[in-house]
Amino acid sequence: MTIPHFSDHAANERTFLAWVRTAIAVMAFGFLVERFDIFLKIASKSLGKHITVSGQVTGSLVGLALIIAGAAMVLTAMIRFTRIRSAIADETTHEAEGDKLDLVLAGFIVVLGIGLAIYLAITMLHGAKSG
């Protein structure tokens, strides 16, 4: 038994899995950012120094936003996977889908990255002034 358009279906599945892997990485990074203060507390105890953790709320918000972005990526991947699977199975010609949602997610992650970089720069400058 052969599957019609097998290579197209396989490519669709590989793309879906790549989206899921990326989303898991984004969510894991969000968790790391959100829990970074725990690492600093443990590091300060082992170094015998007191490290003040400023901006815990900001780090938590950025981490939470990254986790939500990762979940949105999985949802987007599921929607795209099912739409493309249906389009492959359908013998008629279809117009290309819009990529607005992809661009919105990518833009959201870029904004989060820039915000995180600014937050880290301010934290480092604050730490250099007080140290």
From TrEMBL:
- Record carries keyword Transcription regulation: no
List the Pfam families. DUF202
Compartment(s) of residence? Cell membrane
Report membrane topology: Multi-pass membrane protein
Top-rank taxon = Bacteria
Q: Which InterPro entries match?
A: DUF202, IM_YidH-like
A cellular component term from Gene Ontology for this protein is: plasma membrane
> What is the protein's name according to its record?
DUF202 domain-containing protein
Organism whose genome encodes this protein? Acidiphilium acidophilum (Thiobacillus acidophilus)
Its taxonomic placement starts with: Bacteria, Pseudomonadati, Pseudomonadota, Alphaproteobacteria, Acetobacterales
